[in-house]
Write a structure and sequence with these properties.
- By secondary structure, the protein is mostly beta strands.
- It contains 2 helices and 9 strands, in the order βαβββββββαβ.
- A hairpin with a 2-residue loop joins strand 3 and strand 4.
- The two termini are 21 Å apart.
């Protein structure tokens, strides 16, 4: 049992038709993954191909007025064999306070560097999310 982690999940977001996606996306627009649940909350990953590769985690659940959700998350890309690339891994600790809040990386990777992870006009982003236990007041 972990003292800090209440729930953990690994979610793979397959971005298909990448070449079409970069043509379709306008300024400040993104593509959103399917919804997934971790720690009693609904989440999604947002991908934006605007200037490079932007990856964000967004909370889709409505939070109570005084509620905050602490978490740690990481994004990586999968190679041709489906293994997570240690060379492309970014981690972050964050707190979420309201529905729709996004946290992540505006500059996760350049479009040029992404090329080696695109196979059949798609690539896969792996999101590992751990929702932390709420600290108790004594």
């Amino acid at each position: 049992m972990s003292l800090t982690v209440a729930a953990r999940r690994v979610f793979d977001f397959k971005v298909e038709d990448y070449s079409f996606a970069i043509q379709m996306a306008g300024f400040c627009e993104s593509f959103q993954s399917d919804t997934f649940d971790v720690g009693g909350y609904h989440w999604a990953v947002r991908f934006s191909p605007e200037l490079g590769v932007s990856l964000k985690l967004v909370i889709l659940s409505k939070l109570k007025a005084v509620e905050r959700v602490g978490l740690k998350f990481a994004f990586t890309l999968l190679d041709k064999s489906g293994k997570a690339s240690a060379a492309v891994l970014q981690k972050k600790y964050s707190k979420f306070f309201f529905k729709g809040q996004e946290e992540g990386f505006d500059d996760f990777m350049s479009k040029k560097d992404l090329g080696k992870y695109i196979h059949g006009d798609c690539f896969v982003v792996r999101c590992t999310l751990s929702v932390l236990r709420q600290p108790k007041r004594h």
